[in-house]
Amino acid sequence: MGGTPTTKPDPIMVGGDLSKMLSDDKKAEEEAIALYKSYIKLASDANDPVSRLLFEEVLGEEEKHHDTFTKLLEK
Ligand SMILES: [Fe+2]
After folding, report:
1. Taking the model in full, what pTM does it have?
2. Are 29 and 65 spatial neighbours (Cβ–Cβ below 8 Å)?
3. Within a domain: 35
4. How many angstroms separate the alpha carbon of residue 55 from the centre of ligand 1?
């Protein structure tokens, strides 16, 4: 899709209390949601409906994860 693969991993958040860990997880889900939305746009612009559908399905899973962490933080 015109990108360049990387082998550099993103930083891993470690430690903190439960609230901090849940907040870190929620933030990671927000980043994943933004990333998959950008992939959906790329696939759509490339007229690639199969990839777009795949990314939409993954986006749905990431939104469920985000909902889970949001609800846990409200408790
Ligand atoms: Fe996730």
Report:
1. 0.84
2. yes
3. yes
4. 13
Domain interval for residue 65: 18-74
pLDDT single digits (tens) 22-73: 999 999 999 999 999 999 999 999 999 999 999 999 999 999 999 999 999 9
61 Cα–ligand 1 center, Å: 7
Place of tokens 């939305």: 37
Say if 52 falls within a structural domain.
yes
Determine the distance separating the centroid of ligand 1 and the alpha carbon of 65, expressed in angstroms: 5
40 CA distance to ligand 1 centroid (A)? 16
DSSP string, 4-67: -----PPP----S-HHHHHHHHHHHHHHHHHHHHHHHHHHHHTT-HHHHHHHHHHHHHHHHHHH
Number of domains in the chain: 1
Q: Would you say residue 7 lies in a domain?
A: no
